[in-house]
Amino acid sequence: MPQFILLLRDERRPGNGFSPEEMQTLVQKYGDWRRTKATGGQKLTDGEGRVLRKSNGKPSIIDGPFAEAKEVMGGFFVIEAANFDEAVETAKTCPHMEFGSIEVRQIQKTS
Amino acid sequence: MNDSALAVDHLFRHQSGRMVSTLTRIFGPRRLDLAEEVVQDALLKALELWPFEGIPANPSAWLIQVAKNRALDAIRREASLAEKLPELARAFPEQTMPASHTEFDDDQLSMMFLCCHPSLASELRVALTLKTVAGFSVREIARAFLAEEATIAQRLVRGKRQIREQCIDFEMPSGTELRARLDSVLEVLYLLFNEGYSAHQGESLLRADLCDEAIRLAGLLATHPASDLPKTHALLALLLLHASRLPARVNAAGDLFLLRDQDRSLWNRELIVEGLRELHRSAEGNELTPYHLQAGIAAQHALAPTYDATDWEDITEQYDQLYQIDPSPIVALNRAIALSRWKGPKAGLAALTQIEHHPALAHYHLLPATLGELSSELGMPEKAAQYYRSALECSCTEPERRLLQKRLSQTVN
Prior knowledge:
A: 6 strands; B: mainly alpha
């Protein structure tokens, strides 16, 4: 079964306005989704990152992407799906849709 | 722990109340804001990580550990907090379970006494208790009390300022002071429950939470040696007995059912048994509080096989006693209703004429609604319709309004 990666970009973070009860509901929503739809996933740390690029033969390293920038990647999920359409349908149901965008990419098989 | 267990336990909300209480003890009531901030950060951390990593095997311990780390950060940031370190380390030990449950419980009780301190204005007490001990957000409190969020937020700010300015201590009072201050705590729980009990459409779940929370906190009080007093048990009995009727009070469509029309098979037997047990415990000692009498009345209803077969004589007498302690027009109104079931509608109407023009009842829909019922029973439909119309002019909840309209159309036809 082809594997897809769902890159989650956060437009807004669930902020301090959430009550404990609402946070728990959200954790459960993500949890239910992850358990039934995803085979893996990780959270990326906030804020800090480096972008490397070779310039004039030497690697140049810059800080970024910045937390203030819109649509920072917050984490990813891995799912299995028969094809792209099915992967997109699954991604649509992800609770993350409330907080930002999801980029769906297929993971290239090695064989 | 699976996710559904998390939901049943209201883990975030309860753990928030526990941790805020314990951290307020450690940091001191002046730093209530800091305690809340630390706990909010810990919950946010869970919200960020658990969606990806799943819920840890012991979510409570996880939250406590993260809150502890956040508290340590705060101590490092502020030199004045350095002396708090040993107590923090003791109360939040490394790699353990919620230190001891009793310690967290004790802190929650002390927190209730802090939030319900008699020197705080009473509307501040309810808001503070819900926010800190019960883990409700400003928005949830506002929705539950049909108030503006800004109003609730202001009350919380004022409450915390008064705690600071009046240097209110974090401690469980004892002896005569406890008895005096316990009244204020019981009153807040009673208010909390009543808020949840009055049905408002659309918010039924949240409001049931208020009832549950009031019962949980009253239960904590009832099991603590310092507050294990007859009146605490009386309040708990009252709350349990009323809660037992909740499933029959409102149907899925949000329609309200009065006691007379409720399907008694829907009443929660477990809560009734527990309520009666608490009522029994409340009978020790010689103090008779309004809670005792209200619980006694609720018990009569709980034990009655039908509305008509209720011991209305005993209920009327208990209302008489209640009126001696609390001579309010609402009690007089309820007494008149009981009397009308015991001696007939005429006796009820006669009793009501004495309070009919009481200014406190001028906008209270249940007075004209009751007058309407009794007039209708006495074969005066026009009079009854007139009363129902004036009841509809009072402010009441949507389900109450629908019920009154139904009565009105039944009377007119």
